[in-house]
Amino acid sequence: MLLRHFFNSYNRQHEPTCLNNTHVKILQEIYNWVNGQDKQCIFWLNSLAGTGKSTIACTVVHKYFKQNHLGASFFFSRGGGDVSYAGKFITSIVLQLVHNIPAFYQHICDAIMECSNTISQSLYDQWHQLIFYPLSKQDGNGC
Question: What's the rounded Cα separation, in Å, for the pair 56 and 30?
Fold first, then answer.
């Protein structure tokens, strides 16, 4: 079932978040980006292994989930079965968006009706058909 990819799923319930007064600068940079102060559509968090990227991501996701502003999340995990490769990424994101943004449902239905074999296509085509185009039809979407 796709629910295991959610940040607050049973399998991820003990994932740590940042301690108070840690990673303050990068967290503020991410919050500014999420809140629209940076016009880039993608925030790419990268660094060496073990430097806290996953913890930072969990912290951000928890913050926006608590504020009811989280559209979707997906955490990749080495050796984690379905979450160790991208095959379930798009469908997991779409499922969450449909659940969290009710108006998104009709746009997804329209996209699937337009191209019913999208799931068997490349991740690039899935992204455009099932996420990018439907989200671009939402009011207030700038990306």
Answer: 9
Q: Which amino acid is at 29?
A: E
Rg (CA), the chain: 16
State the CB neighbour count (10 A cutoff) for residue 130: 23
Residue in 20, 140, 12 with CA at minimum distance from that of residue 69: 140
Residue 72: HSE in the Cβ half-sphere, 13 Å Cα cutoff: 21
- What is the Cα–Cα distance from 30 to 41, expressed in whole angstroms? 12
pTM (2 d.p.):
0.73
Question: pLDDT, tens digit, for every residue of 6-37?
Answer: 555 555 566 788 889 999 999 999 999 998 88
pLDDT single digits (tens) 100-130: 888 888 998 898 888 878 888 899 999 999 9
| Chain centroid to CA 39 | 18
